[in-house]
Structures are given as structure tokens and as C-alpha cells.
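Exercise: predict the fold of this chain.
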Amino acid sequence: MQLSNCLTDLEGIFVGHATDTKLGSGVTAIVFAAPAVASVAVLGGAPGGRDLDLLAPEMTAPAINAVVLSGGSTFGLDAAGGVQAALREDGRATRVGPMLVPLAPQAILFDLLNGGDKDWGRFAPYRDLGYAAARAAAPGPFALGSVGAGTGASTATLKGGLGSASARTASGHLVAAIAAVNALGTATVGETRHFWAAPFEVGDEFGGFGLPARFGPEATALRLKGRPAAQPGTTIGLVATDAVLDKAQAKRLAIAGHDGLARAVWPAHLALDGDTIFAAATGRRPLGDARQELAELCHAAAGVFARAVARGVFNATALPHPGAQEAWRDRFG
């Protein structure tokens, strides 16, 4: 099967965006055709999320219906309610007696200081954006860059965005990632066009420039968003596979996704980052040698998440507001 290098290469996963450039924010909904076994790993010091505890391996919920990625900081937590409404209308839910209860865990990123119009009145718009994102969820390739949860994202040096990537393991399993990159640190080396994720690039998916010929002190100097007073960051996303996994194995996959984040953003997992990565298994292809093939899945998870981060920044465009942060394409063409 020809891969399109995005999360929806996995059969049974649909992705939809709701984008509001005036607001400078948005929502991305990842909807599963059938409930997916899932877990999560939170390694940032300032996370925001909804229904994350139910994803712990020891918790009862066996599977979920969707994952929600949103801007808006804690205001954005309303987005999951909108996604739930759409899922309930479609019957994608857990039945509890006569009630349908969709499970749609969520992570948020901080994009409140990007120049967008946040004067939304009494109620924030994220519930409606969540509903629109879920209604837009579809199979096949989807837009990258300044869309959905990546609309208002930023990094220390360049506009952030939403990226995705996929790969196949030696055993034939598919692994794919989606990332909304709003990092406190930077995805590029110093002030250059080169991405930290360059060793993992496939083809020229984010320019094909490789790494710089040399690394001087300026390459690894600390660059933080909002300095001298650092503002909150966060990279959020999902790693998914077609393998049959239990929740403990899915947790391993989520942790491996953070390995990729740490290779793609310098520095990552800071006190003001809320770095949160979900993992989900659609269960369409059993494991053979479980120990060997889980290692392959984790290896692939780190790679695809690193690539998704770089693709998010590479494809981003500046917001249409005065003083908006410059995008990679603005600076390097």
C-alpha cells in the first residue's frame, strides 16, 4: 500500500480540523472508526488535559473513541465536549445502560498571546470548534501547518504548526504520528534552516537540508519562547499503530513518542511545557514475537513523531496579524 505519510495511513483513523485564523487558534479531532486501546505519557511540567487518568494501564476503560488536540489553553478544554456531541450523534460511544458516553481524551496547548482576537465574550468558542473538527474528520490526507490545533502554535524562533508522518516496521506494522508543535524551545538548529529532526527525515519531507556541517556554541545556545520572561509552550500529539496492543504496551509507545520529541525540539519537556503524547492501537494486526515487534513499534514511534514535529514547523504559515511570528518559509523560502 502506498503511504501518504500521515496519520490516516492507518485504516480506521479519521482526522478533522477546525481553524479560526482571526482567533489565532483551532482544534484537531482524531476519530477512531472502532474503539482503540490507548494510553498517554505526560512529560511536560505544565500540562493541560481532560480524561487523561482513564488512560493509565491500571484503569478500567478498555478503549476510547477519539483524541482531541486543541489550542486555547484551559479554555480549549471545552473542545472535547463538542467532539463528544458529534460522536454521540454518530453512535460512536460506550453504552452505559440507556446512555451513550463517548470517550474523547484531550490535550491542550497555550496559544493565547499570538495576536489573535481572544475577546470572545462570555463563553469561549472551543466547544463549537471541537464539534466542527469532529464533523470534518475523514480518511485520507489532511492539511498540515497552521491548521487545527496548530493554527496559533509557535516556537522559540519560528511559527509552530501541525505535522504528521508515518512508517512501516520490519514486521509490517504501520506506525504514524500527529503533532501540534507549540514548543517553548526550537525545532531548528540555532538560527539556521536545519531541523533537529534531520537524521530521521524521509526524502525531502521538510526540505532535505540535513544537519549543519558544524555545531558551534550558537547552535546549542538556549533559546526560549517569550524571553526574557518565558511564556508557556507545549507540544501535544498522538502516535498510533495498527498492531494489537494492551494499555501497558500503548503506554510504552507513548513514551517512545517523547523520545522523538526530544530529538526534534531543543530543549523539550521544560517546566513551562505541557508536553503530552497519546498512543493508540487500532488492533488490526496481531503481534508475532511480542518483545521484538514492540521494540520495532517504539523505534518507529520515535522516528515518526520527530518527523511530524519538523513537518509541522516546515509547513506552517504566519498568522494574518500585525507582528505575527515569522514562519520557516518566510525566513528560508
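Check your answer against the key: The chain has one domain: 7-319.
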